[in-house]
Specification:
289 residues, alpha/beta
Length: 289
């Protein structure tokens, strides 16, 4: 199955708000994977990559709204020079987050969200190059208005320099004495990269543990507070509930107001300060319980 990935330079239909003509289309497979062709099927791409020892290019994109994604599509990925290069050198996977949800099959929606979190994607487009194992990250590349198929290939070649296959290919051009020295460097690099990945994993696990403990501590504090309140008089309990309800309302109001992104001026600053003062006073009164 195939879907269409749109290139830049054309107005897109977004929820009926904009109309225009579409640019030239680049086909993207929904299922299965072929070297040098975009696919949404990450699992299939990993399988072919492992079989053919090819690196994988992940493109985290918003194909129907992201201007920089469209610039890269128009200037790099839609060019015949890129197609000629990619078919012999790459597996390419599109991880798309379009406004038009029909562009991505439902079976990939949750998976894409999970990959976005796993790779800590902060913006679009983000290009991640993986080793043929589909896990080891070789590096990340950026978009750019002046990028071309040739310049993007050069950037990828820099990352490929540290692939096991490329290092071994280079090693065979050296004398036996230099081969031993280079292989030692390659081995040290691999060991340190493994240590780095283990360290990253440990940090993630530690952060998750901290979040869990923070929630548990907050929960216990709330339990202790409610225990204290439960031993107050009926009148005091009623007062506590009133203050807590007022605080929740005030907190929701300031959040909703800030979400509207009000213009910063004397009036809005005064309003913000007044809302914060109200919250502070309510918190002060609640702290007495």
């Amino acid at each position: 199955m195939k879907t269409v990935r749109l290139i830049a330079g054309a107005a897109l239909l977004l929820s009926g708000a904009m109309t225009g003509t579409y640019g030239e289309a680049v086909e993207s497979d929904i299922d299965g994977a072929t070297p040098g062709k975009w696919t949404m099927d990450f699992d299939a791409a990993k399988k072919v990559a492992a079989e053919k020892d090819l690196p994988i290019l992940l493109d985290f994109s918003g194909t129907d709204w992201c201007s920089w994604c469209k610039i890269m599509e128009e200037n790099v990925f839609s060019k015949p020079e890129w197609a000629a290069y990619a078919k012999d050198n790459l597996m390419m996977v599109l991880i798309d987050f379009p406004t038009d949800k029909s562009l991505v099959p439902e079976k990939y929606t949750q998976r894409n969200a999970a990959l976005k979190e796993a790779f800590d994607i902060r913006g679009f487009p983000t290009f991640i190059v993986l080793e043929s194992d589909g896990q080891t990250e070789l590096g990340r590349l950026r978009s750019g208005r002046n990028k071309t198929p040739e310049s993007f290939q050069d950037e990828m070649a820099t990352l490929f320099r540290f692939r096991a296959a490329e290092m071994e290919k280079y090693c065979k051009t050296l004398s036996p004495e230099k081969q031993a020295a280079f292989r030692k460097l390659a081995g040290d690099l691999t060991a340190k990269k493994d240590e780095l990945e283990a360290g990253k994993k440990a940090v993630i696990e530690a952060n998750e543990n901290v979040e869990t403990l923070t929630e548990e501590v907050a929960g216990l504090k709330e339990d202790m507070l409610m225990f204290r309140v439960g031993n107050l008089s009926d009148a005091e309990q009623k007062k506590f509930k009133e203050l807590k309800s007022q605080l929740e309302t005030a907190t929701t109001e300031i959040k909703n107001w800030l979400d509207t992104k009000p213009e910063r001026n004397d009036e809005t600053v005064a309003k913000y300060n007044a809302m914060q003062a109200e919250i502070s006073e309510l918190e002060k009164q609640l702290s007495k319980f």
